[in-house]
Amino acid sequence: MVAYREVFPSGKVEFACTGMAALVLLFAGASKPMHAAEHITLRNGFDLICDHRETAGDRVRLYMTASGPNFTEVASVDIVSSEFVALPTQPPTPTAAASQALNPTPAEVREIAAKAGAVHDLDVELLASVIRAESNGNVHAVSRAGARGLMQLMPGTASKLGVADSFRADQNINGGTTYLNDLLVRYHDNLALALAAYNAGPAAVDRYHGIPPYRETRLYVARIIHDFNRRKAEDLAHPATLMASAAPSAAGR
Q1: Whole-model pTM?
Q2: Are residues 116 and 8 in the same domain?
Q3: Which domain holds residue 75?
Q4: SS3 content of the chain, % helix, strand, coil (to 5)
Q5: Cβ(228)–Cβ(125) below 8 Å
Q6: Catalytic positions, please?
Q7: Domain count, the chain
């Protein structure tokens, strides 16, 4: 594929031309008009597809659509690389409901999480902490492993959960909440084990009979529990709510 690659933070621009035949075939077989977009890789491992960018000082706004306020702002040093890719042109403007699902505001994400949590009796603050750890609230996030969306569902997991489009906030959160609930049931409401399985997979938790000795997984579990406890401590409307702990209990619900 032909790509113009911009490497940060050195500021040098590298032009790469690879796979010309593949690009010709791509356009020859394309049934829809194509347009250029940027494939951005961030230092934290997330990959994004953005329509365009705006730079102000050392901050960069990555816009997900050609128009509208939907953007992710990052430090320029956090952009590891970017390349131009050919994508189908955007479909007609979606309905209000579809727009909310594809480009939700933080308040809309919380509303979706609250509704999903109510179905499974899971605390919205727990789901908010998982979403923050998984994607930092970016509905378009893609990990190096291929996990997608707000709750970073792998394609196979998403398919089993009936999630047709992991980049739709409602489908992704409903699927991720269902999966987390299944793990809590599997591990008898042990929140730490359920979170470890969400991150590393149930097979790893079962193999080690506990949280796997993976640094990433242990930091992940600690980060979510800490953030969940912080949120509950700040929840003045429900001061008596029990805080989560790593011990087996129903506190995670």
Answers
A1: 0.59
A2: no
A3: 2-88
A4: 45, 20, 35
A5: yes
A6: 134
A7: 2
